[in-house]
Structures are given as structure tokens and as C-alpha cells.
């Protein structure tokens, strides 16, 4: 039998000390340390897992862009109305049913319009707007600004017997886009 694997009976003295005297001097056996460390780890893992087990999900912030195209691109005395069209580029839940407000921008002067548009399922929109009230001179061009209102969307399947959706929440952020400059023709001289 090998001297390294001999069994030492309990109660015998090792290096002149019993286990009771080691414990009195503050030397805790390694098994107790291991069990204590395992208990601390189990409690900390439990505290981390509890919020995830409750299914609490934070809302995802969703941005995007809005495109604006205007016809006609030159306004003169015979122009009666303008047509604005474009689309909202975002994730699928933030494209449809978004309200768009319009305003003409001349340098730092913003003139909001009463007309609004609502996006379709693919994010596209069309609106008929009045022509700009600015005249040339002093203004040679204006820009049409489209602003998409923010929205909150809940996505997820309805389960049988439950009336509320428990899926993911998306915060669709406010979007703003400008058209190319719209030229204002000078007033005709008589």
C-alpha cells in the first residue's frame, strides 16, 4: 500500500493538533468555506434571475427617416395647390398609421399647415397642401418639412382567454424630413 493513500482514523492528532483545537484558533475547515461560497453564489444567481423570470421587458426605442417629395417644384401665380408624398422608413410596427404634420420653412421662419396625412401599411403617404404664402421678392425658395408624430406600439400574439397583448413594446420616435427647395417665381410685372 502506498504511503500517500493511507487512511488516517478520526480523532488522531495531525501535527500535534486536533480538529477541535484548530477550530478554536479560527482555522475553519475548507469544506465549510466551500459550502458558504456555494450558498452565496446561489442567492446572487437567484436575485439576477428573478427580474427575468417575471417577464419584464423594456420598451425598444425605434427611429427611422421620412422622405418628402413635392409637386410642382416651382410655385407661380397660377399654382393653386401642392401635392406632398413620401414614405416613413422604420421597422414594420412603426410604419403604419402614423400622423404626419406639414410646415413651410423659410430660413428660420416656420409656417405650420393645418393639413395632416396618415401613413398606410407600407409607410407611404400623400397629401394635398395649399401653396406657400411667401412671395418673391424677398423669398426665392421655401422647403416643405414633414414631421411624424411619436407613437407607442405593442407587438405580440393574443393568447386565448387573455385580453391584453404581452409582447414587446416599441416607442416609435418623432421623425422629421425636409423636401428639396421649392422655387417661388417672381410676381408677373404688368
Explain what the structure shows.
This protein has helices at residues 19-24, 30-53, and strands at 60-62, 65-66, 69-71, 74-75, 81-89, 99-106, 109-118, 124-130, 141-148, 151-155, 168-172, 175-178, 182-184. It is an alpha+beta fold. The chain has two domains: 19-53; 60-158 and 165-184, Sandwich (Immunoglobulin-like), CATH 2.60.40. The strands form three sheets. Strands 4, 6, 7, 9, 12 and 13 form a six-stranded mixed β-sheet that branches. It is rod-shaped and about 125 Å long.
In short:
The protein contains 2 helices and 13 strands, in the order ααβββββββββββββ. With 190 residues, it is an alpha+beta fold.
For the record, the CATH class of the largest domain is Mainly Beta
The total count of strands amounts to 13
Task: Please estimate the helix content.
Answer: 10-25%
Detail the poorly predicted runs.
none
* Class by SSE composition: alpha+beta
Oligomer: single chain
Please compute the radius of gyration using only Cα atoms.
36 Å
Q: Write down the domain tally.
A: 2
CATH-defined architecture of the largest domain? Sandwich
Distance between the termini: 125 Å
CATH topology of the largest domain, by name, is: Immunoglobulin-like
Average predicted confidence as pLDDT: 80
Order of helices and strands: HHEEEEEEEEEEEEE
Q: Can you count the helices? A: 2
Strand content: 35-45%
Q: Name the overall outline.
A: rod-shaped
Largest sheet: 6 strands, mixed
Amino acid at each position: 500500500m502506498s504511503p500517500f493513500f493511507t487512511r488516517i482514523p478520526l480523532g488522531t492528532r495531525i501535527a500535534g493538533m486536533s480538529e477541535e483545537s484548530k477550530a478554536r484558533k479560527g482555522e475553519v475547515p475548507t469544506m465549510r468555506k466551500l459550502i458558504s461560497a456555494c450558498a452565496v453564489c446561489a442567492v446572487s444567481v437567484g436575485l439576477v434571475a428573478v427580474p427575468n423570470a417575471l417577464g419584464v421587458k423594456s420598451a425598444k426605442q425605434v427611429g427611422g427617416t421620412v422622405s418628402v417629395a413635392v409637386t410642382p417644384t416651382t410655385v407661380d401665380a397660377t399654382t393653386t395647390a401642392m401635392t406632398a408624398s413620401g414614405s416613413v422608413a422604420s421597422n414594420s410596427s412603426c410604419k403604419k398609421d402614423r400622423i404626419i404634420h406639414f410646415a413651410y420653412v423659410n430660413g428660420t421662419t416656420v409656417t405650420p399647415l393645418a393639413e395632416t396625412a396618415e401613413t398606410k401599411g407600407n409607410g407611404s403617404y400623400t397629401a394635398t397642401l395649399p401653396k406657400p404664402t411667401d412671395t418673391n421678392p424677398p423669398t426665392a425658395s421655401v422647403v416643405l418639412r414633414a414631421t411624424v408624430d411619436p407613437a407607442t406600439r405593442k407587438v405580440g400574439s393574443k393568447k386565448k382567454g387573455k385580453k391584453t397583448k404581452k409582447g414587446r413594446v416599441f416607442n416609435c420616435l418623432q421623425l422629421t424630413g425636409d423636401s428639396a427647395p421649392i422655387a417661388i417665381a417672381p410676381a408677373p410685372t404688368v
